[in-house]
C-alpha cells in the first residue's frame, strides 16, 4: 500500500497568495509576542499527531528517521526540528507549501504518505501557528534525512505532479450553517487537521482516498492499513458507530476505552499521543460530526445479544471448534457471555472490530497481543497477551471463527490461510 497510516511531514515553499507576507509572518512567529501562536501550534501539532511519525524508535522528538514501509518501498520520516538539517532555514511560505501542497523546498514532490491532501484543507492561520510552534517550541536536533527506498516506478517523484493534478484539492472544508458551529468545527478537525480519512477511508487503484467528506458514502467507511483493519466510522449499527452515543465517542478518543470497545494497535498510539489532548469542546465537535454520518453498509438493525453460548461454555460443552481454546485463553477476561468488563476488558459480543468483514486486526491481536492507550486519565494501561507462540494457525483461526459467530455476532469465519499469511508477514518484518 502506497499510503500507510503513518505520515511524513517536511518543509517546502508556499501558496502564491501568502508569499508577500511570508517574511513578516515568520518574524512575528519568532518574536516573544507570538506565545499564543506557539501554544496554538503546539495544540494543532498534537491533534495532527506529528510526533508519532516524525520520531523514530528511541529517537528524539520530531527528528525523523522512522521507517514507513509499504508495498511500493520504504520511506523515512523527515527531521522537522528547527535545526539546519531540519526546517531551521525554512520560511513560513516554504513550510506551508510542503504541508498543503506536498512540494519540498528543493522542488521535490513529497509522497502522500504525508497526508498533505488532508492538510491542504487546513486554514492558512493554522499552518502559520504550526510553523510558529515548530520554530520556537521544538528543540533542534542535528540529524540528516534518509533517502526513500522506493521501487520503480514509485521512485520517480515527478509522477506525483500528475497524481496531485488528479487528486489534490485545495478546496476548504465545506461548511453548512444549518448544521451549527459544532458540526462545522468537527468537520474541519476530522477532514483536515486530524486527517481521519487517511486511515479510515478506502483508496482506489492509484491510492487516492475514495471520498473526502460526508457527501461520499465511502468516506470513513473503513479499510485496511498496514495489516490492520481500520474501523468503519459511519453510522452503521454493527460495524460502525451507530450504537455509540456522542459522549461514548468522545470518551473513547480521550481515554481509549468505553462500554463498547478498547483501543489497540495503531489507534492506541493515536489516542496516547494525540486525541487524549484534544479540548473537550473539540472532542464533542468530532463526535457531533461523526454521529451525523449515514451508515456506509446499510446496517439499520442494532446488535442483539444471544445468551445461549454462555451456558454451554460454563458447562464445559465445547461443541464448536475453537470453544475449548476460548474457554482456556479468552474467557477469564472476556467472559462466558462475551460481555467482558467495561472499560477494562472489551466486550466481544457486538464489538465493531469483531464484526468487521476484515478480520485482520483480530488476527494481529491473537498472534501478538496488544496494549491499551497510555493516557493521563487512567491509572494504568492493560496488556492483552498474544497466543501465536502456543496456538497453531488452525487453532487461532478456530478461536476467531468461534468469537465471530457467538453471542449474536454474525461475521464470516476466519480461515487458517489468513492466519498463516499474516504470521509470515509479521515474522518477515522483525
UniProtKB/TrEMBL annotation:
Residues reported in the UniProt entry to bind heme c 1: 50, 53-54
Domain of life the protein comes from: Bacteria
Residues given in the record as heme c 3 binding sites: 330, 333-334
EC top class named in words: oxidoreductase
Residues spanning the signal sequence: 1-25
Known EC number: 1.1.5.5
Keywords: Cell membrane, Heme, Iron, Membrane, Metal-binding, Oxidoreductase, Repeat, Signal
Major location (coarse): membrane
Entry note: cofactor: Binds 3 heme c groups covalently per subunit.
Gene3D superfamilies: Cytochrome c-like domain (1.10.760.10)
One Gene Ontology molecular-function label: iron ion binding
Location(s) in or outside the cell: Cell membrane
Keyword flag Iron: yes
UniProt: heme c 2 binding residues: 196, 199-200
GO cellular component assignments: plasma membrane
Cofactors required: heme c
The UniProt record lists the keyword Transmembrane helix: no
PANTHER family recorded: ALCOHOL DEHYDROGENASE CYTOCHROME C SUBUNIT, BLL4482 PROTEIN-RELATED
Protein name (Swiss-Prot/TrEMBL): Alcohol dehydrogenase (Quinone), cytochrome c subunit
Source organism of this protein record: Cupriavidus yeoncheonensis
Lineage of the organism: Bacteria, Pseudomonadati, Pseudomonadota, Betaproteobacteria, Burkholderiales
